[in-house]
Amino acid sequence: MAYDRYVAICKPLHYGTIMGPRACVKMAAAAWASGFLNSLFHTANTFSIPLCQGNTVDQFFCEIPQILKLSCSDSYLREVGLIVVTVCLCLGCFIFIVLSYVQIFTAVLRIPSEQGRHKAFSTCVPHLAVVSLFVSTGVFAYLRPPSISSPALNLVVAVLYSVLPPAVNPLI
Known about the structure:
Elements: H1 2-10, H2 15-18, H3 21-47, H4 64-69, H5 76-109, H6 114-143, H7 151-162, H8 164-168
């Protein structure tokens, strides 16, 4: 979405050529394939971890950090390695989004008319809202100190970052 907005605002005359059906299919396939492989690796590795503290997870879905808390062996180090790979993948996507929007905002601020700037910004705001909601709740869920953690708060935050952005996305 960030690349689509970048091309639409920064290279509008080339939009049809750059963002043709083939490019859209490639980007969608890359997103689906990376998400599928990432989840496949995590799922396969999670099933290989022995659980010694029961199998009850205090979430409404089986989140990897919650499952790792139930592990009783050192095999969780493989999962930590996969989490590092996932963080690198997500960080790469995040950097790409930030760089795209820096280019967009630079181009938009050069537009002389107020109406033109408003129109350009209004095409970006919905995507930025969804990304900001997802990133901020995800960061809060995984990087908050354990001292402010509670099962109820964990559940609310998990719903916020896993259910709310996909539910709001079609409306935006």
